[in-house]
Amino acid sequence: MPRQSRIDAPGTLHHIIVRGIERRNIFEDEKDQYDFLKRLGLILTETQADCYAWALIPNHFHLLLRTAEVPLSTVMRRLLTGHAIYFNRRHQRHGHLFQNRYKSIICQEDTYFLELVRYIHLNPLRANLVDNLNQLEDYPFSGHGVIMGKHKQPWQKRNLVLLRFNEKIVPAQKAYKVFIQQGVDQGQREDLIGGGLIRSVGGWTAVTAMKKASIHEKSDARILGDSEFVEQVLSKNQESLDRQYMLKSQKVDVNYIVDRVSKLLKLTVDEIHQPGRYKNIVKARSIICYWAVRELGESMTAMGKRFGISTAAVSKSVRRGADIVKTKGYQVI
Fold it and tell me: How far apart are CA 214 and CA 299, in angstroms?
């Protein structure tokens, strides 16, 4: 059975799980972990993705991320490729470091956000890397210590977690700590990482009861949420795919978009590709990047190569282009 494609859109909340190939270590020591965190922070800053929870275990790691304009696939490719090259070079090894496909699960925020923060941050305790919550606060390779103020990671959005408990930091930290304590005895939460329907309705007991009652719920292994949320995500994703198919069936490609924008802004194609920051050229590139990435599904990496700019610059262009298109009412066809 072919693997399903990943679902992503700006603002989507993802629980990401990455494991070493054959469950081997992807971090051999603290130097590996600190290098990984430095790389993660740089990539999150450049792609403007938000990280709310994370935990590094010797043979795997968890992240709770919200993507911005840069797709999750780009964020993860940079992170995993960079770490694999570093790790192989440092430890004089060759070959793959990670399992072929990392797991990314779209999450229904209202229901699961705090549950996932707790589940992820308790990973080192479940893995016996620490003995208790006091040691977990001191553990430098989990976001829990950052939320409790024991460590600093500027890229971690700790205040957005604490605000769910209290507007003042100290009371929020106390309430958060109680919440974490309440989850210590929960153990492995298959409902947070297992199959789609099992997650969506609350476990095998609920699934069995639904089958006996002839109740059918929409589910998807890529999504953590109730049936309505699953339907919304899949519907939005299908609309995007249908739109891309329609445009491509009408021979709309990046070259078509460049030509279209050149006529809209009265520029030549050569002028659009010239280096420089002239206002009209920046405007043209922004519209092109927006339509190419959001309408055609082109990668930001490909658009960056086309215009000789970084992925982060393409991301800014996409956001700028979205505003221009909305304000001016421009249509790609």
Answer: 43
From the centroid of its chain, how far is CA 13? 6
Q: Enumerate long-range contacts of 159-166, CB under 8 Å, 24 or more apart.
A: 160/50, 160/52, 161/52, 161/53, 161/114, 161/117, 164/113, 164/114
Here the CATH number for the domain that contains residue 266 is 1.10.1750.10
Q: How far is CA 271 from the centre of its chain?
A: 35
The encoded tokens of residue 7 equal 């679902």
Nearest to 16, CA basis, from 122, 109, 101, 85: 101
* pLDDT exceeds 70 at position 309: yes
Confidence of residue 235 (pLDDT cuts 50, 70, 90): low
For residue 231, what pLDDT is reported? 59
Range of the domain at 21: 13-192
Please give the pLDDT value at position 192: 59
Nearest 10 degrees: Cα torsion 32, 89, 62, 174: 20
The 10s digit of each residue's pLDDT in 106-116 is: 876 667 889 89
CATH number where 33 lies: 3.30.70.1290
pLDDT at 330 over 70: yes
Query: Are 12 and 90 within 8 A, CB to CB?
Result: no
55: its two tokens: 């935990």
Of 25-39, 40-54, 214-228, 233-247, which gets the smallest average pLDDT? 214-228
d(CA 44, CA 46): 6
Q: How far apart are CA 16 and CA 311, in angstroms?
A: 21
**pLDDT for residue 191 is more than 50:** yes
Q: Are residues 122 and 26 in the same domain?
A: yes
Closest CA to 253 of 283, 294, 296, 287: 296
Give residue for tokens 């922070």: 41
pLDDT above 50 (res 202): no
